[in-house]
Amino acid sequence: MLHKIARLLAVSSVLTIACAQSDAGITSAVKSRFAADSTVKAYQINVDTADRVVTLRGTVDSGAAKEQAVMVARNTSGVREVVDHIDVSTTAATTGVATTDTAGDNLKNAADTSGSAIGNAADRSGTAIGNAADKSGNAIGNAADKSGDSIGHAADKTGNAIGHAADKTGAVVSDAAITTDVKAKFLADSHISGLKINVDTNNGVVTLSGTVPSRAEVDRAMTVARDSAGVKSVVNSLRIGK
Q1: What is the C-alpha separation between 200 and 183, in angstroms, rounded?
Q2: 44: exposed, middle or buried (Cβ count in 10 Å: 0-12, 13-18, 19+)
């Protein structure tokens, strides 16, 4: 009897190890280790496994995150080789809006500085700007003769207008930012298997691929992706299965 139990346990262990080291098992293990790692952001990296060779794709925030992802994948049980196709973002790609906001602030500061220079020049010279102000649409007119502060105030308004224009320009979201946003929403949604869905974005068109357990999850993923900022359309390449 003891011999039979020992044989059953041995067979069970072999089957468990074999399952863990299958391509699907390796992919799940690598994704789980990414999700648990404080340096690697799992939603930024796609993991594919073929014949125990793990291929990593995506865009991460830093070289440290790229190196950590490769090391974590390489140290996962059953992995024979790791192919690194990870790109490092030239900026801290979180939402893509922070960089544009900074550009807007710079434009505001530059416009404010220009406004101060105009005000100081008007204070010193007391020159009648009149027609030049009317042509520029600033409606400074004869008031500039009375007070250079009027010009500075108008320039501040111009600076704010430039800032608002820069903020509107920031509404154009990059493909990398769209991919990051959609992945983050998938991982945060309890009705979506975020780790099972690959997200690719090209010119605002999001393509979803992978295997999910139900049609409801496909519909949910499509809705979440479609409602994300900057998305023009969503291409459904998801399959239903286990």
Answers
A1: 10
A2: buried
User: CB–CB of 93/61 below 8 Å?
Assistant: yes
SS3 for 58-127 is EEECCHHHHHHHHHHHHCCCCCCEEEEEEEECCCCCCCCHHHHHHHHHHHHHHHHHHHHHHHHHHHHHCC
Q: Which of 84, 78, 95 is nearest to 46 (CA)?
A: 84
DSSP annotation of 29 reads H
What pLDDT digit, counting tens, does each position of 186-213 carry? 999 999 989 989 999 999 999 999 999 9
Write out pLDDT tens, residues 124-142. 655 543 454 355 445 434 5
List, in order of start, the domains of the chain with CATH numbers.
2-88 (3.30.300), 98-169 (no CATH), 175-240 (3.30.1340.30)
**% helix / strand / coil in the chain, to the nearest 5?**
55, 20, 25
- Compute CA distances 117 → 26, 111, 123, 125, 156, whole Å: 64, 10, 10, 12, 11
The model's pTM: 0.35
Judge whether 234 and 201 are in contact, CB under 8 Å. Answer: no
Cβ neighbours for 103, distance < 8 A, ≥ 6 positions apart: 166, 169, 170
Residue 195 is encoded by which pair of tokens?
Answer: 């780790």
Q: What is the DSSP letter of 190?
A: T
3-state DSSP assignment of residue 22: coil
What are the phi and psi torsion angles at 61 (to 5°)?
-80, -25
Report the candidate in 173, 183, 221, 188 with the shortest Cα–Cα distance to residue 45: 183
